[in-house]
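Quick illustration, no need to memorize.
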Amino acid sequence: MTEVKRIIFIRPGETEWNRQGKQQGWVASPLDVRGVQQAEKLAKVVPSIGVGAIYSSDLVRAKQTAEILARKLGLTPVYDERLRERSVGNWQGLTLNEIRDWYSREYAALQADPDQFRIPGGESRLDVEKRMKTAIVDILATASNETIAIISHTTAIKMCVRMLAGTDVEFNFVTNTSVTTLARTESSTWRVIAVDDTLHLEGLEATAVEEPEDKR
């Protein structure tokens, strides 16, 4: 069976909540008009990347992005709930400023321990990393293409890159439909090739929502 040599992580296109700066988590937010345009622009370049399979979060915004790419590639996406964004629980629908004002004690705890703090009613970053790890292990064990695309979300992508590459990659944002690429080395480890690449957007505005644990 062909070994996966390259993983292309893709964030879904923009939603109305992205533009409003709201934390989405697992909410069923569809792509807005610009989000569809972003995905269509990415679809024009994915054939040149050589993607042979698409794995996607089952959240609406991810599925819509996957479907646009899949039509261009002639592929059928595989949906997996483990590839979802971090569940933000009681913070769903809130802006970062609202979280700071209304959950000041919890926000301070998050800043003190970004990995282990569990959002009220939601997940910690380590919770996300744990489920992403099981998903990636299963995908790599069954995929039969050298290059695969995984459509996931900001925190999930960050945790997965850290887990595979064995290092914290310094990128505060993951922009809508951006491409983050990892390549397998000769020693079967993973190295980061590109982070948050948005060249395909050709000037089309994209949104990157600040995460609660990103310190400013």
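The CA atoms of residues 57 and 80 lie 5 Å apart.
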